């Protein structure tokens, strides 16, 4: 059971990091999770807002894209926190961590994982072995890389959204006539 948890954790970590890499750094082939999040999020928003009055519908839809970006960033963090927690959980349960008052539950693994990913690293839960110290250090590096890539993603996304907002009348004419440039 422990090996299965660690295996699932590693898969979550790799899938999350691959999506970050493809979304932020690979221009021609965007991430597989982020694209679906945006596509389904936009479809849900369109269906929910369809019966609303035009102005309110436009306002709600304009809030959808920023909400989806936040949801996407939260998903990337979640994949890493849960993935590393699944790696830590068997070790915490078998006493390879000093847990003080926190116990040996999956919640403790989530707590330690979130603290390590955000580089807060509280001292009430800490690994006893060098191997898990290394995993925690790796998780901190992943967290710092995620922060850097998330900032880069937002800085690259904002000008694109501004350009689309300026081009909206031209885009709607193109859509209405069925022509493209």
Estimated helix fraction: over 70%
Could you tell me the CATH topology label.
Helix Hairpins
The CATH class label is Mainly Alpha
| Structure annotation, total helices | 5
Task: Tell me what the structure shows.
With 181 residues, the chain is mainly α. It is elongated, with a radius of gyration of 21 Å. 78% of the residues lie in helices and 2% in strands. The model is unreliable at 169-181 (pLDDT under 50). It has one domain (2-177): Helix Hairpins (Orthogonal Bundle). A two-stranded antiparallel sheet has the order 1-2.
Compose a concise summary of this entry:
The protein has helices spanning 2-25, 32-49, 54-93, 106-117, 130-177; strands spanning 97-98, 126-127. By secondary structure, the protein is mainly alpha-helical. Mean pLDDT is 84; it is low at 169-181.
């Amino acid at each position: 059971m422990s090996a299965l948890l660690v295996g699932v954790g590693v898969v979550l970590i790799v899938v999350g990091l691959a999506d970050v890499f493809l979304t932020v750094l690979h221009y021609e082939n965007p991430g597989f999770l982020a694209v679906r999040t945006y596509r389904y999020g936009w479809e849900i928003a369109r269906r929910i807002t369809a019966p609303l009055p035009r102005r309110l519908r436009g306002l709600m839809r304009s809030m959808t894209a920023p909400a989806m970006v936040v949801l996407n960033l939260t998903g990337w963090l979640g994949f890493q926190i849960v993935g590393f927690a699944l790696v830590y959980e068997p070790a915490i349960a078998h006493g390879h961590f000093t847990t003080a008052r926190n116990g040996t539950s999956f919640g403790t693994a989530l707590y330690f994982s979130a603290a390590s990913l955000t580089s807060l690293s509280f001292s009430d839960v800490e690994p006893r072995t060098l191997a898990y110290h290394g995993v925690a250090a790796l998780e901190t590096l992943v967290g710092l890389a995620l922060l850097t890539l998330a900032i880069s993603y937002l800085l690259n996304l904002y000008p694109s959204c501004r350009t689309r907002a300026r081009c909206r009348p031209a885009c709607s004419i193109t859509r209405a006539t069925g022509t493209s440039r």
